[in-house]
Amino acid sequence: MSYCVLRSKSAGYSYLFVPGLHKTISMSSLKMIGGVVASRRLSGKALRSQSAELSVLLAQNKFTNLRTMASKAVTMENINPNIVKLEYAVRGPLVTRAGEIEKELLKGASKPFKRVIKANIGDAHAMGQVPITFIRQVLSCVTYPENIDKSDFPEDVKQRARDILNACGGKSVGSYTMSHGIEMIRRHVAEYIERRDGHKSDWNNVVLVGGASNGIKNCLQLFINDLDGKPSGVMIPIPQYPLYSASLAEYGLEQIGYYLDEDKQWGLDSAELERSLTEGSKHCNVRAIVIINPGNPTGQVLTRENIEAIVKFASEHNLFIFADEVYQDNVYAEGSKFFSFKKVMTEMGEPYSKMELASFMSVSKGYMGECGLRGGWMELVNFDPDVKANLFKAISAMLCPSSLGQAAVDCVAKPPAPGEASYDLWLKEKTSVLQSLDKRAKMIAETFNQMEGFKCNIVQGAMYAFPQITMPPKAIEAAKQAGKAPDVFYAFQLLENTGICIVPGTGFGQRPGTYHFRTTILPQPALLQEMLDIFKGFHEKFTKEYS
Amino acid sequence: MKLEKCVTIDNVNRNLLNIRYAVRGPIVDRALQIERELAKGASKPFNRVVRANIGDCHALGQKPITFIRQVLALVSCPQLMNSPDLPADVKDRATEILQDCTQGSVGAYSPSAGLMIVRRHIVEYLEARDGVSASLEDIYLGSGASDLIKSVLTLFSGVVDGKPPAVMIPIPQYPLFSGTLAELGINQANYYLDEEDNWALQVEELERSYQEASEHSRVVALVVINPGNPTGQVLSRQNIEEIIIFAHKHNLFILADEVYQENIISKPFYSFKKVMHELGAPYSDMELASFVTCSKGWAAECGLRGAFLELTRLSPPVRSVFAASRGVMQCPTVLGQCVLDCIVRPPRRGETSFAQWREEREKIARLLAERASTAYSTFNDIPGYSCNPIEGSMFAFPQVEIPALAQEEAADLDMSPDEFYCLRLLEETGVCVVPGTGFGQRPGTFHFRTTILHSREEFQHMMESITRFHNNFLNRFS
Predict the structure, then answer these.
(1) Contact between residue A518 and residue A512 where contact means Cβ atoms under 8 Å apart
(2) Cβ–Cβ < 8 Å for A32, A41
(3) Of chain A residues 94-123, which have a CB less than 8 A from chain B?
(4) Which residues of A493-527 are buried (b: 16+ CB within 10 A; e: fewer)?
(5) Can you give the residue ranges of every domain in chain A?
(6) Where is each Aminotransferase class I/classII large domain found (chain A) (predicted)?
(7) Are A259 and A238 in contact, with CB atoms under 8 Å apart?
């Protein structure tokens, strides 16, 4: 534990004390590997041995010796300390273990299950979702323009491909584009936003990015600056998507957690926002707030009133708003509707309509699920022009986002219109994906709620359920013996016994003393049903065993 | 109530203010403006802008390699698998790649280090190149070399024992390095390339730079760009050996930017990995990061954003930290990874696409060599110009004498003389090149970088425009 204390001094991240566990959890030690969210408690067994090893080395002054012996130029002693903070979560054993089990199964190992079900990551195609034909046909035409003449693709596909190629240098997707993306596509995105919100969007404020994560990191880095001797802090929801905790740690920014209200469908409560801000302001300048809507991992869709309250709060405290709206097309529940922050702010009028906002969108989610193509956009609203210029400058050193990711963005921002050749098929595919997700969202929450010891909010949107589980005291004890958090312990048992891979709540953060996990709703319906049946059986057995 | 912006120039990340990236700086912006003016019918002494500011082959008319594009078309739209127009080896390759994608879709995330099959082919490529074994675990794919270079440089950030880190970079250099170092708050320790000795690295100069920087910083790494950008030299084996010995002496981590290794014009390329290996211990145990991209070489697929990094002999915990940091961004673009696969494992003799691939590749190499020699002789014929031979890469970086009168006028306009020169060149001829200031140069010398990728006719036009402009410039300012 002394290691934790040492780190908390040097790092200054928010640490939570979990009553009854006598353990300290670093909220910043959350991290993802290989696109898979994983987490690790600093108190984990493996880490203990690791830190023990480290302290022995430090005691022997080994690292210094190594350095003077000139065997390695970069050592754990002189490496960027912010990057190291990301390390421990990474060997997050759960996902690694799932990979190992898959290999064991291939080699014919005998297990109580035949396959690993990866419900840990929002990767729709990996779970068998079929790509949208229009997008893929356009991609094949822009990469190999002969297809425009030779293929029997619909005319609107060919025309789209021609339009995109005409906007590329030398009519090739192999040319660099502008750093913030192809102008035509930025205009299409602005038009998309105008249709969505019913308000003006300036294409000059739209920046295409190689995946939303990229854009989010670029905007977060604006805040790296110790003003008046205090570091900058950013408010993020708990539970949150760990890109935020990881990026804040990398940038040396303070993470100020605010809890979502599980009893109010994971809404944001103004009193809790105030509490979090007041606490954060003691040691840093709180400068921005992140909102994930629809929520990841929590699946809520914020009401308009809730968004208004958040906007007012941000305005009152002069906070910059990050609106992570990548699941804006994934809204299922009756009565739920997606409102963008931009729309609500605009309609609230001044001073709210003048607030700074960055909103993020991705082709990885929605009905398209094109994760591997790395396409997305951000809309930068009301930025100081000098700040925007400096942000663009930083982006320009990375040259440009993938032209093919941009082409996918174009297909999403300007899908086939009624009357065009691809329209019917596109609509059918889109509707079928979204309807199926809708069905799965309901199925999963209903099934969990029928299970003893489970409590699951309605999955109003996004691609995940985040149920709370009651952990029998004996299981908590057993977890402690195993050197694991109870939810991590549970997830391991689940994996080893059933092959189902989920992410424990610790990876996202949760109220002390509560236990959750995140599962995607992405397995195709038959597989999802199978998964839920297996889950039920496992949970009954687990509860019996530990009570 | 809100009075001012949350983020202003006064409270924004200061490191961002220090970034300069001339390849896309004010002169390029002005070129864009001029293009718009021309489109609106403005009257200028020229009818088009010639973009020579960026190594962007396709934008300048180079045709994509058919094999690469056919594979891309097929992996993105597998319904074409039955198309009679696509060769068998293209179908085989696409099938092989798709089998390595989860559920056979390039729309699924790949592992953050990249698809296994691509990494395996990269290992084979490196082993064939160097005759030295390579390891799958050392290969990381990225969305462009810049992405990977930034990740590696991030390792060095942070103050240790009260001293900020510094990284040695060549002057002239590719401004990605200075820009990224500024962004990360790492000090830049400059060492000058020796223009008189065809832009070689002189150990004495490396020592000077190291000692000077060590007074206030902890020098941790050395960047070498070979073949050189913007300078176009290909380092001799002996020079590489000297650099390695120097780096070893001071325990420096070597970053070898070797993205132009397939753009070799007149001199053999030796990778740092190969030379280190052949030098034997202790040099063969040194850490090394080497970068290759699909944006350069014969493929020149800049827009597709594919690159890889070979990261050798890191200490195991440092390697884990690095792998972890790459995971945050999920994965590099899968289609960019497919391009890399085609590059490191191109069609082989006997395969259907081989003949066409070889022909396309040879044509590209021939044109590059031709432009390099034309640029070299033309520039050296202009009075007041001198230009080293272009041994590799895709750039010329001539030195230009700028008359004192012109320097004064530049100072009045608050510009450096070479910026002034390049801006005038743009305004009078439409030729857009990047002033030496953007790359760094010895004080009192003036250069610019131009790409040599244009079609023969366009290249001729550019060379004539520059020659004519320079004569006028001299008349006016002397």
Answers:
(1) no
(2) no
(3) 121, 123
(4) bbbebbbbbbbbbbbbbbbeeebbbbbbbbbeeee
(5) 4-79, 89-127+433-546, 182-400
(6) 153-530
(7) yes
The residues pairing with B191 across neighbouring beta strands, listed in sequence order, are B170
> Do the beta carbons of residue A245 and residue A255 sit within 8 Å?
yes
Please indicate, yes or no, whether residues B102 and B44 belong to a single structural domain of this protein: no
Provide the CATH number for the domain formed by A182-400 in this structure: 3.40.640.10
Indicate whether B106 belongs to any domain: yes
pLDDT for position A54: 37
Q: Are residues B25 and B148 in the same domain?
A: no
Determine the pLDDT at residue B6. Answer: 82
Nearest CA in chain B to A127: B103
Domain boundary among B315, B344, B373: B344
**How large is the greatest C-alpha to C-alpha distance in chain A, in angstroms?**
75
Q: Which residues of B touch A401 (CB under 8 A)?
A: 143, 305
Q: What is the CATH number of the domain that holds B465?
A: 3.90.1150.10
Residues B322 and B381 both lie in one domain: no
For B188, what's the count of Cα atoms within 13 Å in the CB-facing half-sphere?
Answer: 25
Are B471 and B408 contained in the same domain?
yes
Are A244 and A227 in contact by the 8 Å Cβ rule? The answer is no
Q: Which amino acid is at A464?
A: Y
Residues B440 and B471 placed together within one structural domain of the fold? yes
Q: Does residue B350 lie in a domain region? A: no
Out of A67-71, A307-311, B346-350, least confident range? A67-71
Residues B212 and B320 in one domain: yes
Of residues A73 and A485, which shows the higher confidence score? A485
DSSP string, A31-99: EEETTEEEE--TT-HHHHHHHHHHHHHHHTTHHHHHHHTTS-SS-TTTS-HHHHTTHHHHT-HHHHHHH
- As a whole number, mean pLDDT of residues A343-361 equals 97
The reported pLDDT for the residue numbered B3 is: 54
Q: Quick one: pLDDT at residue B205?
A: 97
Mean pLDDT by 10 residues, chain B (478 residues): 72 80 76 93 94 90 95 96 93 97 94 95 98 96 93 90 93 92 93 96 97 96 97 97 97 96 94 97 95 95 96 91 85 96 97 97 94 94 95 96 96 95 96 94 96 91 96 93
| 3-class secondary-structure state, position A18 | strand
Shared domain for B258 and B109, answered yes or no, is yes
Tokens found for residue A389 = 């210029």
Q: Which residue range(s) make up the domain with B35?
A: 14-61+359-477
Chain B closest CA to A448's CA: distance in Å? 27
Structure-block tokens of residue A346: 């605009």
Asked if the structure places residue B35 within a domain, the reply is yes
Mean pLDDT for all residues in chain A = 86
Helices first, then strands: H and E counts in chain B: 16, 14
Task: Give CA–CA dist A257/A284, Å, rounded.
Answer: 13
The CA–CA distances, whole Å, from A339 to A306, A366, A380, B57 equal 10, 15, 17, 44
> Which of B287, B309, B344 marks a domain boundary?
B344
Residue window 299-358, chain A: list those with CB within 8 Å of chain B: 315-316, 318-320, 351, 354-356
Instruction: Give DSSP secondary structure letters for B118-161.
Output: HHHHHHHHHHHHHSS---GGGEEEESSHHHHHHHHHHTT-S-BT
Query: Measured between CA atoms, how close is B111 to chain A, in angstroms?
Result: 5
Class for the domain spanning A89-127+433-546: alpha beta
Closest partner residue to A84 among B105, B315, B321, by Cβ? B321
The structure tokens listed for B350 are 């006997």
DSSP B79: G
Q: Pick from A448, A453, A463, A464: which is nearest to A535 by CA? A: A448
Per CATH, A89-127+433-546 and A182-400 having the same topology is answered: no
pLDDT given at position B204? 97
Closest-approach residue (CA) in chain B for A397: B176
Q: Is residue B34 part of a domain?
A: yes
The predicted model scores a pTM of: 0.90
